Amino acid sequence: MPKYAEEILAAVTELQQHPTAEQVFLEMKREHPSIALGTVYKHLNGLAEEGLLLRITEQGSPDRYDRTERHDHLICSRCGKIADVHLPDIQSRIEHALGREILSYDLKIRYICPDCRKQEENNAEGGTQ
């Protein structure tokens, strides 16, 4: 594995928050002050192409990176926060419905996260006083 690639892979796994390339870059700078942002992007893209990382793409937001363990994502429509969700046996249900085997799928569920929901409730309460 090329220089830094293993550490970048470990950083994505350790950050556990679907980091952007910039967040991985800041994490890597702690141990490697001379590392360039372009180097981090190059390795993240390479790791994603090799199937060692999952790239989460959302229109209007920077790409985020995640481990490849099978799981799906909840994405807040307000703040963009991404949370993992494990929904067992979805692939077999899809295959049964289609009548054929599938190689993979990518499920992104959009919702309003608890923090944004609470903020909306607080704003509504403040507006009616």
From TrEMBL:
CDD domains named among the record's database cross-references: Fur_like
Signal peptide per UniProt: none
A biological process from GO: negative regulation of DNA-templated transcription
Binding residue positions for Zn(2+): C76, C79, C113, C116
Gene3D superfamilies noted in UniProt: 3.30.1490.190, Winged helix-like DNA-binding domain superfamily/Winged helix DNA-binding domain (1.10.10.10)
SUPFAM superfamilies named in the record: Winged helix' DNA-binding domain (SSF46785)
Transmembrane segments: none
Superkingdom of the organism of origin: Bacteria
Molecular functions (GO terms): DNA-binding transcription factor activity; transcription cis-regulatory region binding; zinc ion binding
Classification via PANTHER family: FERRIC UPTAKE REGULATION PROTEIN, ZINC UPTAKE REGULATION PROTEIN
Protein's name according to its UniProt entry: Ferric uptake regulation protein
